[in-house]
Amino acid sequence: MIHKEGRSSVFVVLLIFAGLSIIMFASFGCNFVTVTLSLLLLVWFLFISYVFRDPKREVIPDKDALVSSADGKVVIIRETEENEFLHTKCKMVSVFMSVYDVHVNYYPVDGKILYYKHHWGKYVVAWHPKSSTKNERTSIAIETAGGKKILVRQIAGYVARRIVCYAKEGADVKQGQQLGFIKFGSRVDFFLPLDAEILVKKGDTVVACQTPIARL
To answer: What is the spatial order of strands in the sheet that 111-119 belongs to?
Structure first.
């Protein structure tokens, strides 16, 4: 299934593939060059369709766990100061999404959105530590029913040039509900209380809605 954020892109690429293939075969006939170019266009179309896929994800609700918001690899685990909203020292976990990962993001916990902001910025490679504060990004602060406050940050990388976020301040959200979409991959950061028990280690591969990142 194609995600709604990519349907127009997939449709445009399909039109280009079909139109150019028809023109090439009508003008030059079936030969090595036209077949090769058509196959390359087909690969492009299939790749774009793959990038914007929207797989069905089932989350097993766990009120005490923070599950991953994204598919990808854990690239950072450390303590840091979160100065945008929480204004306190936190445990930070970062998940890098490659261009081959599913690009849909999901809410990691049940709770209420206390804060949301989109920041314009640069496009440093997403695994660079400074991308968390220098790149285009969105920040979403959520308070759980148990009173824990976390912050989730979507970060655009060198390839990803558009972040889509559905968060609205004051809204109640459910674990596993779609949070947004980062086109062509990038990174998601989690800022967690210092007493959170981290359940992953650097280098682990995680799956959105299924892999517990931490126990709050």
So the answer is: 172-173, 111-119, 137-143, 149-155, 186-192, 88-97, 72-82, 205-206
